Prior knowledge:
12 strands, about 35% helix, binds ligand PBG, globular, TIM Barrel, eight-stranded parallel β-barrel
Amino acid sequence: MITGKYPSLRLRRTRKQSWSRRLIQENTLTANDFILPVFLIDGSNKKQSISTMPGVYRYTINRLSQIIDKALKVGIPMVALFPKTKNSLKNEIGSESLNENNLVCKAILEIKKKYKNQIGIMCDVALDPYTSHGHDGLIKSNQIINDETIEVLINQSLLQAEMGCDVLAPSDMMDGRIGKIRKALDKSNYQDVQILSYAAKYASSFYGPFRDAVGSKGSLKGDKKTYQMDFKNSDEALREVALDIKEGADLVMVKPGMPYLDIIKSVKEKFKIPVFAYQVSGEYSLIDNAIQKKLVNEDIIYESLVGFKRAGANAIVSYYADRIDKIIK
Ligand code: PBG
């Protein structure tokens, strides 16, 4: 691999001038690489801050255009919708997920009405924003039950597709759900709705601030280790991805992001498919807090994001996406 030898070979030679560094750079970021998560709340005229995620807000439906306009102006291709469901609407079986007037449905309709296909909409398929216990699936005798959960996820998927969702993103980690959702979508003539599978999603402490943002933090009983992956494993991630591709996933997600760059790289190398990475809430909060406390300067945002591209990610879900114009500059 290495040709040449010091002193005739000096790698610093091409680093000396900015123009030269620009010529040899291997990776770049553009707005096209980003997906912005958008949190929804009920009520009207509210843009509510989230204490654990400075700079990130929850929006009521009538204030949504504020953030979507920003996303369009910055030039990012897609937003991902996440609801903070009122506690009074949560129950054991997460039935609000199937209510055609729930926050996500209303948001999809509103965005599609106003923006048509100027921007893509991605929606989580999972029950945790709607269940009183905060889990992604149904519970029977203290177990998250796989196959019964999938039946609800299918209906949630069909409902979101009917409202106009472009990309369904099952983030629940039940076995076999991608194939069943694809089949149900096709049967109902939603052949063009994409599936972005959270294929390698780890049971992670980095999700803490997100659970605060969607209001499932206090309610979550136990942990998600019986369905989300063990962070000690990487071969298992490749099996998860292989299965989801076979079942019909168009795109796959690795999540969290920064501690899992090795997984992004091996998924990309092995499968040559679009791989998305999620710079999750805990990563965002750590970075942001460190900047605010002046432990590091804000250039680490750009550095953290380029890392995803270097690892092989095609796109990055990031809470910084709405500010990416300034970050790239
Ligand atoms: C829920 C879901 C989670 C995230 C996205 N979808 C949390 C979880 O699995 O508990 C986390 C996103 C983040 O931390 O930014 N299915």
